[in-house]
Amino acid sequence: MFQSFFTLLVMWALLYLPDSPRWLLMRGRPEEARDVLARLAGADIDSEEVDIEMQNIKEALEVQSRGGGFKMRELLTNGPSQNLRRTILGITSQFFQQICGINLITYYATYVFENSLGFGPDRSRLLSACNGTEYFLAALIAVPLIEKVGRRKLMLFGAFGMMASMAILSGSSSTATINEFGAPVLETSYGVVATVFLFGFNTMFAIGWLGMTWLYPAEITNLRIRIQANALSTCSNWLTNFLIVMITPPAFTNLRYNTYTMFAVFCACIIPTVYFFFPEPKGRSLEELDVIFASANAKGINPVKHAKHMPKLKGRELDEEIVKYFGGDIEEVRRQSELRAASFSQRAGSVSQNH
């Protein structure tokens, strides 16, 4: 019953969240879209910055609407948009969130403390409650770091920390002896180490993977495929969640402490995959990400490396890149850019005269 309070709190907060400016433009509500962009940028609604962003989004939406209605087979094709690659990145990120073993801890914390680390029932429940509280607080650490540090660095940091935590859990748990009741018994020092790194695993996950894998698939896919691609990535998350929940009890029965070893190996596999295949979206608009994938494909280079070195694009420069890779009238883009600049200069002149 108490948990319902937080559900109601989230539902109330959702009423005050602004709609996506891209969604508003797709629904023919440009003034509302402009207002949202101005608030996000902390700029005046008639500023050049907002004008440029509006034009970039309109150009991208126009390009993506040329293909007619969406078809599911688009998710299985690459081409300039690299839809298949981007869909796989979203699915993989959600798969990694679960295969790392977080729900071994989240769902089975009391069982782990009692049947793997050898604590009594009451202490196991207390530690489980503390673990959940610590997990919530650790998640807040990522909030100011996501845009400052970047998605890739946090995911790599989290994966390395989770791998190390699982490896140490395995090593410390391997020293357990079995008493006459069939329960594991750890020396106090090993029990403390195992408990610290179980909490440490939760911390690393909360910082690097808890919220990141819901943000990353939404950023990395373009507007045309975002709904369907994110549906598949979410499906990947829950199917892997189900798998982990089902295999954990028999894994502890048969593998015992090597259950942690297994998940340490899974976490180790995350590190090179993120490093070599996951581009960094930090500081990029969604339209810039479209250009990153398209230009990397055209040049035959890795989007990860390209995202790192490609300069920031906006305004006319971004419009021209969109037209270059996705088609359109480059002269019309330039004409619109000149008109926009003239319009802004005229408004700026009017404001200065009024003052």
TrEMBL record:
**What is the predominant subcellular site recorded for this chain?**
membrane
Q: Record's GO cellular component, any one? A: membrane
**Topology within the bilayer:** Multi-pass membrane protein
Name the keywords, alphabetized.
Membrane, Transmembrane, Transmembrane helix
Locate the transmembrane regions by residue number: 6-25, 154-172, 192-217, 229-248, 260-278
Q: Which SUPFAM superfamilies match?
A: MFS general substrate transporter
Q: Indicate the segments forming the Major facilitator superfamily (MFS) profile domain, all copies.
A: 1-282
- Protein family (similarity comment): Belongs to the major facilitator superfamily. Sugar transporter (TC 2.A.1.1) family.
What name is this protein filed under? Major facilitator superfamily (MFS) profile domain-containing protein
The species this protein belongs to is Hortaea werneckii
